[in-house]
């Protein structure tokens, strides 16, 4: 559903569907970015799934809709990639961790209009654990590059320690750097840390160079609130922007039984 405002949020248009009518298609995690072209093209990214209550979804993609007329009409969906997320568990005992799942995040280079999308995916681990992957579009969202892994979590023989989750992406215009943040369990067990990986050029290439900085943690995932049936829950989202001279991240951390989470901010430097 889409509702629009032309007066700074005071009034809004009647919500309407922008997806092709199909009772078995549904979306989650919609985000819209604006391209720097003369038409101010709108690109809406989301997780696209197919299924119903009696036919559970086994077809999931990351996808976009595109509007070149200010949201009046939309083309697509254009599929970015098949979604192969398996879910996160506490390495200590196997209890579930409610993470971002298949919810994508998107950013745009305001100079070139290139688009970057990240999400959780297990295809590169032979479906043993989720990692953070990235795909790029250089034509306004119609076509997308083959996903690559971007989290820098060291490989461990303990499968659960390899998990990375809840990613966001941001393009920093001042120096042309792409940043991606995520949590992982590299320290072993339930010890959780938060990182930003940065790339300066050709970031969607398998040969891209990424540098990583820890900006949060460690903390125990068991300090987070517990969502019954869904696991330890720091939140479905984190935030990433820039101050011009540096990236700025906002994210949740586990604290204590009496104060399960705090929302904090951090920069890499």
Summarize the structure.
By secondary structure, the chain is mostly beta strands. The protein has one domain: Neuraminidase (6 Propeller).
Task: Give a topology summary.
Elements: E1 25-34, E2 42-50, E3 59-67, E4 75-82, E5 88-89, E6 96-98, E7 105-108, E8 115-121, E9 131-137, E10 148-149, E11 164-172, E12 177-184, E13 191-199, E14 210-220, E15 226-227, E16 231-233, E17 239-242, E18 247-254, E19 261-266
Parallel strand pairs: 6-16
Antiparallel strand pairs: 1-2, 2-3, 3-4, 5-6, 7-8, 8-9, 9-10, 11-12, 12-13, 13-14, 15-16, 17-18, 18-19
What name does CATH use for the topology? Neuraminidase
Strand ordering within the main sheet: 1-2-3-4
Annotated CATH architecture: 6 Propeller
Poorly predicted regions are none
What is the 3D shape? globular
**Domains, number:** 1
- Structural class determined from secondary elements: mainly beta
The residue-averaged pLDDT reads 94
């Amino acid at each position: 559903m889409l509702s629009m405002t032309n007066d700074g949020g005071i009034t809004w248009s009647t919500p309407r569907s922008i997806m092709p009518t199909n009772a078995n298609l549904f979306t989650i995690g919609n985000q819209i970015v604006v391209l720097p072209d003369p038409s101010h093209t709108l690109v809406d990214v989301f997780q696209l799934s197919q299924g119903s209550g009696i036919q559970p979804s086994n077809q999931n993609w990351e996808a976009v809709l595109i509007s070149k007329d200010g949201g009046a009409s939309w083309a697509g969906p254009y599929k970015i990639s098949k979604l192969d997320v398996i879910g996160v568990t506490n390495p200590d005992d196997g209890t579930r961790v409610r993470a971002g799942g298949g919810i994508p995040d998107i950013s745009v280079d305001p100079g070139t209009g290139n688009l970057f999308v990240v999400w959780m995916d297990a295809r590169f681990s032979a479906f043993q654990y989720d990692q953070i992957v990235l795909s790029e579009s250089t034509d306004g969202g119609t076509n997308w590059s083959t996903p690559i892994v971007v989290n820098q979590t060291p490989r461990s023989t303990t499968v659960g320690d390899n998990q990375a989750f809840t990613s966001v992406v941001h393009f920093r215009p001042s120096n042309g750097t792409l940043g991606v943040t995520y949590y992982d369990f590299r320290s072993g067990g339930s010890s959780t840390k938060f990182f930003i990986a940065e790339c300066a050029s050709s970031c969607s290439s398998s040969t891209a160079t990424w540098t990583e900085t820890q900006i949060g943690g460690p903390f125990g995932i068991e300090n987070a609130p517990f969502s019954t049936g869904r696991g330890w829950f720091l939140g479905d989202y984190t935030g990433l922007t820039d101050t011009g001279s540096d990236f700025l991240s906002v994210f949740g951390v586990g604290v204590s039984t009496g104060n399960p989470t705090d929302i904090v901010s951090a920069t890499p430097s």
